[in-house]
Amino acid sequence: MKFVLATANKGKISEMREILAARSIEGVSQAEVGLALEVEEIGTTFMENALLKAQAVCAASGLPAIADDSGLMVDALGGEPGVYSSSFGGEALSDSERYAYLLKKMENMEQRDAKFVSTIVCTSPDGEIISAEGECHGEILHAPRGSGGFGYDPVFLVKGTGKSMAELSPEEKNAVSHRGAALRAFVSLLEKRGKYDK
Ligand code: IMP
Predict the structure, then answer these.
(1) Distance of CA 194 from the midpoint of ligand 1 (Å)
(2) Rounded Cα gap, residues 127 and 152, in angstroms
(3) Using CB atoms within 10 A of its CB, is residue 9 exposed (0-12), middle (13-18) or buried (19+)?
(4) Residue 114: left (phi > 0), alpha (psi -120 to 50), or beta?
(5) Phi-psi region of 127 (alpha: psi -120 to 50; beta: other; left: phi over 0)
(6) Given this model, what pLDDT does residue 193 score?
(7) Residue 31 burial (C-beta neighbours within 10 Å; 0-12, 13-18, 19+)
């Protein structure tokens, strides 16, 4: 079973591919189906943005498409950066500049609870929409640790592991991450709807 992954984020592509491959589902990148599409994320919720991305890629490719819209929600910041995680501190920042901006903002904060959230939306050419959500709880470290993953991974201590998300192997991250949880919930829904033909 083949789905186009509606994202240009290389970190997301490799994680989504691995998680789906474990369930014998093939995820192909937009580039692999000859699609150069950057969908503007104008929604105000994870769901709206995931739907925008999945629908655009499904329409352009004629294939079922899976989008992930995700982000980091920090309790002490009232849930920020949330849906605006990828542009927090400014569009042009690199991943390390962006998490440095977050650490600076939280410099004197003792309450550091946070979670990653992921909303997965899959749209099919027949119009069917399936969505699922996942979360991963933890806290914001005072300094970065580790070199794996992407985005805010080095500053996110994963609850119950003693490790930052960037210190986990790709397999360990997929087992505990918001994206892993959301994609596994999505595959269960596919199975229930009888759409799971390996
Ligand atoms: P979007 O879903 O394309 O809007 O981007 C989500 C943003 O949230 C990413 O650019 C990262 O900054 C952050 N993010 C989402 N998932 C992860 C993750 O697994 N690790 C680290 N950062 C993440």
Answers:
(1) 31
(2) 34
(3) middle
(4) beta
(5) left
(6) 85
(7) exposed
For residue 15, the ligand 1 atom closest to its alpha carbon is 19
Which residues make Cβ contacts (< 8 Å) with residue 116, sequence separation at least 6? 70, 71, 72, 73, 135, 136, 138, 152, 156, 165, 177, 178
Residues of the chain with pLDDT under 50: none
How far is 89 from 93, CA to CA, in rounded Å?
A: 7
Quote the radius of gyration of the chain (alpha carbons, Å).
17
CA dihedral for 81, 88, 10, 144, sign (positive or negative): negative
Both tokens assigned to 28? 């192909």
Q: How far apart are CA 121 and CA 123, in angstroms?
A: 7
CA of 144 to the centre of ligand 1 (A): 16
Instruction: Write down the pLDDT at residue 10.
Output: 93
Ligand 1: residue of 44, 52, 85 to mutate (most ligand atoms within 8 A of CB) is 85
Per residue in 133-166, pLDDT (tens digit) is 999 999 999 999 999 999 999 999 999 999 999 9
pLDDT at residue 197, rounded to an integer? 59
User: Around 1, how many Cα atoms within 13 Å sit in the side-chain half-sphere?
Assistant: 18
Residue 19: closest CA among 187, 180, 178, 148 = 180
Beta bridge partners of 122: 66, 130
> Which residue do the tokens 């069917």 mark?
128
